[in-house]
Design a protein that fits this description.
Number of domains: 3
Shape: elongated
Keywords: Metal-binding, Zinc, Zinc-finger
GO molecular function, one term: zinc ion binding
Largest sheet: 2 strands, antiparallel
Protein name: MYND-type domain-containing protein
InterPro entries: ISR_Activator, Sel1-like, TPR-like_helical_dom_sf, Znf_MYND
Pfam families: Sel1, zf-MYND
Distance between the termini: 74 Å
Number of helices: 11
């Protein structure tokens, strides 16, 4: 195993030809794994067969570091009119409802693609469904997974919970549990139910399950306020009056 100093020296030399970085030679890192540097595209191509396995392994590790990072919050604040929390539930997305007709799928995909490029988590999730079901686009498993993961990274709890279900179905229980713990701490009820089932089957440690439940309750409590309670009671009252109650 190389020491930190040896790794540092290796990073300052071309991984293929061994030339060091000098004023007229600038080494560029491998953009997938950041483990090695190259002095030219030619050297990178020549070294690729030797580096491919380590590169893919490290790239996957870097991706998981991003994927399984707990988002701080999904709370987008309160509606300035009714004081209720602004929801990011993609099932209630106004764009999703407006573009849900079959004839509008292609237009919806165009809008979602633009929104996804701006970092909108809900748009990424909608695109994942489009690529999964072939709605407005050709079915594409890689793009489906990519947009599902981007939605989860962006803080969409429903996308996160669905990723957990997919991992569970594929037998990757450890990854499924990680997704559900994150989703539970983002107030996702489906993730809490999934964790309860996984805990009964012995797939979740007691301390992790307890931490997820505490995080879920803390997230729920953080969206409570007297104004919200009054607004919700007001809306329920008027709905009942409308029903003749």
């Amino acid at each position: 195993m190389m020491s930190g100093e040896e790794e540092s020296d290796m990073m300052m030399c071309c991984a293929s030809c061994g030339i060091g970085q000098v004023d007229d030679i600038k080494l560029k890192k491998c953009t997938a794994c950041y483990l090695v540097r190259y002095c030219s595209v030619k050297c990178q191509k020549e070294h690729r067969p030797k580096h491919k396995r380590a590169c893919k392994k490290r790239a996957a590790e870097l991706r998981d570091e991003i994927l399984f990072k707990q988002p701080e919050s999904t709370n987008l604040g309160d509606c300035p009119i009714c004081f209720l929390p602004v929801s990011i539930d993609t099932k209630k997305s106004s764009m999703g409802e407006r573009c849900s007709d079959e004839k509008d799928y292609k237009s919806a995909v165009e809008y979602w693609t633009k929104a996804a490029e701006l970092g909108d988590a809900g748009a990424h999730y909608n695109l994942s469904i489009s690529y999964r079901d072939g709605l407005g686009v050709e079915r594409d498993e890689k793009k489906k997974v990519y947009h599902s993961e981007q939605a989860a990274i962006g803080g969409d709890p429903f996308a996160r919970s669905r990723l957990g279900c997919e991992e569970w179905s594929n037998g990757r229980t450890d990854r499924a549990v990680k997704h559900w713990i994150i989703a539970a701490k983002l107030q996702d009820e489906m993730a809490v139910s999934a964790l309860q089932d996984a805990y009964r089957e012995g797939c979740v440690r007691k301390e992790d399950f307890a931490s997820a439940l505490r995080g879920h309750q803390a997230a729920v409590d953080s969206t409570k306020s007297p104004q919200r309670d009054e607004a919700e009671a007001f809306m329920i009252h008027h709905k009942l009056r409308g029903l003749g109650g």
